[in-house]
Amino acid sequence: MDNIFLILQIIVSVLLIIAILFQSKGSGLGVIGGASGSSYHTKRGFEKFLTQSTVILGALFIIISLLVVAGV
User: Fold this and answer.
1) Is 14 exposed, middle or buried (0-12, 13-18, 19+ CB in 10 A)?
2) Between residues 70 and 44, which one has the greater pLDDT?
3) ∠ CA 35-58-46 to the nearest 5 degrees?
4) What are the distances in angstroms from CA 41 to CA 25, 35, 48, 56, 66?
5) pTM recorded for the entire structure
6) Which residue has the higher pLDDT, 12 or 71?
7) CA distance 66 to 56
8) Ranges of each domain in the chain
9) pLDDT, tens digit, for every residue of 23-66?
10) How many CA atoms lie within 13 A of 50 on its CB side?
11) DSSP string covering the chain
C-alpha cells in the first residue's frame, strides 16, 4: 500500500512541476501569440484550466504526503 502512495506522489509531483512551468509569471499565455501583457485581463480557457489544475494538484500532493507520513 505504501508503494502505491509513493508512486502516486511521484506522478502528482511531476504533473505539478509541469503545470507550474507552463505558467508564465505576470504575462499569461497571450505572449505566445504576440499579445502585449500590459493590460489586466481575466483568465479564460487554458489559463483558467492551468490555474485550477495547479491548485488541485498542489492539494493532492499535500494530502498524499500526509498519508505517506502517517503510514496509512
Assistant:
1) exposed
2) 70
3) 25
4) 14, 12, 12, 23, 36
5) 0.70
6) 12
7) 15
8) 1-19+43-72
9) 876 555 555 555 555 556 666 788 889 999 999 999 999 999 99
10) 16
11) -HHHHHHHHHHHHHHHHHHHHHPPTTT-GGGTTT----S-----THHHHHHHHHHHHHHHHHHHHHHHHHT-
Q: At what angle do helices 46-70 and 2-22 cross, to 10 degrees?
A: 150
Residue type, 14: V
Please answer whether residues 12 and 59 qualify as being in contact, where contact means their C-beta atoms are separated by less than 8 angstroms. no
Instruction: Compute how many other C-beta atoms are within 10 angstroms of the C-beta atom of residue 9.
Output: 17
